[in-house]
Amino acid sequence: MLLDEDPSGPGFVSGLRTEIELLLVGIRYRLIRLCARSNGAEVWQTLDEFGSTRAVKIELCGPEALHQEAIRDRVSRARRLESSPYFPTMTNACALETPSGTTGLASIVEWIEGTPLSTWLAQQPAFGPHTMVGLISQLCEIVEALFEADLEHLDLHMGNLLVSPTSLPSHSEQDLVLRVVDLSTLADRSGLDWTQRHDIQGVINILLTFHNHLTRTRPDDRVSLRFLNGSEEMLYLMTDDDPGRALSSPQAIRDGYQGVLYRSQSPSVRWLGSPFEYLSAEQIGDDTQLVEVFSEHVPWLERLYGHTPTLLTGPRGCGKTTLFRWLSKPCQLTHRAAPDPEEIGFTGVFISCRSVLHNRLSHIRDRERAQKLRSHIVAYFTLVVTRETLNTLQAMELGEADVVPRAAALEVTQWLTARLAPNERLVPKASPFGQAAEMVTHLASQVYMALRQERDLRKALPDVPAVPDESFLEELFQVTTSAMPHFREQRFALLIDDYSTPLVSEAVQAILNRIIWSRNAAYTVKVSSENHGATFADDLGAQIDITREMRVIDCGRDYMYRPNHARSRQFAEDLLNKHLQAAAFVADAETLLGRSVYEEGSIGEALVGPRAKDNTHYHGIDVIAHLCSGDIATLLAIYSQIFEMGDVTPDSTERIPNRIQHEAIEDVSRRMYARLQHHHPYGPKLHIIVREFAGLVAKLLREAEPHSDTGKPRQVPRIELDGDYDLHEEIPGDVSGLMEELLRRGVFIEMTESRGLRTLSTISRLALRRIYLPAFKASPYKNEAIRRDIQWLIGLLRNPEATCREEYLRWTKRSSDVPLPFGEQP
Amino acid sequence: MTGRLVKVDLEQILAGLPDPRPFDINDVSPSFDAVIAVAGFEERATSLADMFASRRLTGKHLLLLEYPTNVNDNQASKQRWLACHNWTSTRQVAISEAIATTLEDMLRNEAGVPRVLIDLSGASNLVVVKLMQALLELELNMEPIFFYAEAEVYNPTREEVDDDFEVVANEGLSTGVGELDVSVARSGLAVDGLQPFLIAIPGWGRDRIRAIASEVAPEIVDSILDGSASSRVAWIVGVPRLEENQWRVEALMRIHGLHDNARVHRVETFDYKATMLRLESLFQEMQNSHNLTVAPLGSKLQALGCAMYCHVRPAVRAVLATPQRYRAEAYSSGVGATWQMTFPTTRALRERMRSLDTLDRESDGPDASAGS
Prior knowledge:
The complex is a heterodimer. Chain A is α/β, with parallel strands linked by helices. In chain A, 44% of the residues lie in helices and 14% in strands. Chain A has 31 helices and 20 strands. In chain A, the strands form 5 sheets. Chain A has a 6-stranded antiparallel beta sheet with strand order 1-2-3-4-6-5, with helices on one face. In chain A, helix 21 packs across helix 24. The longest helix of chain A is centred in the middle third of the chain and has 26 residues, at 374-399. Chain B is built from 13 helices and 18 strands. Helices cover 34% and strands 23% of the residues of chain B. In chain B, helix 5 (125-137) runs parallel beside helix 12, helix 8 crosses helix 9 and helix 11 crosses helix 12 (300-312). Chains A and B meet through helix 4, helix 5, helix 11, helix 15 and helix 26 of A and helix 4, helix 5, strand 9, helix 8 and helix 9 of B.
């Protein structure tokens, strides 16, 4: 039993009181405070006559137990452990007679400041796998020290271990070290049979408590969940009924837990069963696997290199996440043929808005509310960025230890601890970055819980301890760069993925934009978002001039831009080849799909030619590459469907027949088109607009007069307006949301370069996403456009049926009574 | 302390929780510190109010929850609840507002552990989820007693389904998709590198479950539309309690296009524990490879099970989609059997749930290693 105050009441076994002086082996000890008592024993804090604080344990026992040999043995056993930092020094032991006349044995031991492990653990909500493994390593070293001294402690439990701020040799004074405080039970190991050896069982019971404590905190990060699975397996191994099989050596336990932690952070590679098992990088769990299937021919890759702040836009499925994950440092560390880091030019820290912001902050939608929660929003974002930075540094600690030396790691984590949690101490024998990440994760959870309870329970927003403010990240990266000069050249780049409404609302973006788009020398930012998903105003109304302050890459526009056609085809082919290699297929893309060749000259002519009903037109790498509008997931869906319908196996070497390719592509196209109906919001309206517009494109291909110069059929999957219009100013409120959704979902791709405009909200040339066209038997190529004014576009949004019917009549009847607003005659 | 390890599983946790049993007014202590009711438009939404009106039950405080939709349809039930009893205090709160803090405020000065009677009869699934969250997360300790009145006739009827299947399938009991709330109760994990997986608990009507599927993974919609198998969705289809309503299972399967190749689990609509255990078996199968989202659009008790499950497994996300409008005229009618469930105090319930997955030595009591 542990006592916090002096228990001077009756029933106290020894009859001792504070201020009483004991004379032990010729030295006087004044009793200061009773620290613990149990089973006829008491532990007192005392002050000896030389002014040194000592712990005196008094065990009540009969005179028969007090013979000199037993006392000498006790001291001698304790002294065998003096070289271990985990054990205090026993200065002496002697027989004692208390004022109440009882006899006992007094052990005089070095005084240790600290908190019992059980108490300490109960106060550790931030307890995580790294901290746990650090403590397990210490526990195992304690048992190893005992065994090396041929000793068993026999009473190793949470109450006999203090967590003490102590300097271990070669460690900083910040360390929290376990100290064994009761040396009275030590016994010679060689004198015990295996049934009497309890220390490993003591350790296992402590590990069980650690495990249950971590389980009860209900961690919500994948590493902790994986770690708990591994820890559970370890505990079953350690408690196996068969002592011969049970894991029982301290070294094996320590190594086992370190292995569990390592595997929790780096799950083992599972080879692809099918080349298209994952259609999105969000679904590839392992960085090694992501590297395997990544095509470095992605047209906009190199434009992301370097320090320039960059915005990468494109619809869901365009490969933004793949690219950002590939650029992150942990992913690069798994890359056997990684590009020279100098070529990439930064140390990428991947931050997934889908993972860390969407589920957490998406309910904050109005500006007033966001302002009220401002400091918490900033704190939460800053903390998750800090955590991902620490995780990145921890991956480097494992993979590039020379870049991230331990002294520098301690410097950074000490700064971090001082800033965010001044009372926290780290545990040695574990990664400082890993432990700091656990601390930061806990703080982020506290902020999130405060936000959630404010929302769900309408509780007053509690103060957040040590809130990091807007300048925190800059300071963090300055400190890190100062400690590790490597990062001066390889500056940190925050790869903020999917920073889009509705994942991150406009109101929250306005708060975060002051951090994200701030100019500073300590780090740079690369942001990906859906088209029109990122906003550029901050909550003070300041607008970022995006074309001046950052590089903008639009995946759809870049992919569909004519000079990129050859590169797009090369990318589409390489992408398939990478997936085939990862799944150990023998043939390559060209062998299985072939090139796209038409006797009629082009796919447009073939679709209206004499063999139009053959269903053999959509085939070959060139056409498949052209069906992509930057939506890389569509390419993979097409490949997947062709392979499935073509019964392609790893050994296949035959070209897949054109008919099968055609039918598979139409199938994918129909599915993508049908999906639109169920998107939220505006799903049914998106569906109708595509039905009418793609239907118009298909009809004009077949029924409009061929082009007068070339004689080719009209292929018009594009709308060209008579000027640059601002989406927010020119499109009326009743349909502006629908227009934004058409662009955000990539139903239409805006093809205009921003040309120095301050925002990305310009609409001028809109290309229909190509994958919808095969469902209507239309050509994905373009040799003509529908050239109209903004009113026509508004008409398309409000009444697509009438607008497209009218347009059809204009092109087919060439009626002179329908005036054309501008430009050439169709 | 030695002995084989045993793990506390969900079945053990649920073993001590109540099953619904017929509501017997002679079997309950008739006075309650607070009553939480929902002003819905179905007749059954006021069946409990009738018992207060006849003085067979008494209560101090009334917390009446109101929907933002169908305001006129709900007026009668609202008036009935307010007038049925001489309440010490009444609070009317919109379902989007501060349910939990209002409850806490109402009960702040009550001595001991307040008994709170919660009438689920008029509650939407969103309300059920929110109420359960409030009970599980408020620090205030309460003794919750749930009351539930079934409808006498559940719509759509078999005749309506047979005669006009497409209308029933497309419109169900509500129209359109209002809000898609991705963070109701528990926001779950969305870990990069894991595949999305939807556990769909459908109700009548297609729109809302498909909107949720589209948000989770659009390819699920493909499989629904073309009847192909999908590795990203499992369906929990509710099996009604009464024999005469069993046809509804097949009707639901038909509405949602569930063929032999779909992964369908049939679970009793009335058995919230069975819903939780089914969720648990899916979680155990997929936790390392998938981000799980559950869409509880089925029965109220299934929604209750989902809310409790997401509390014990915060890695699982709950998503609800509210309709643009409820079709009051299409809803169920009459009052059928009435049921009750008396839960342990909320503090005890929370503690019980927290012990999930902890390990014990077989020879010892629960979590005996702590503080050894």
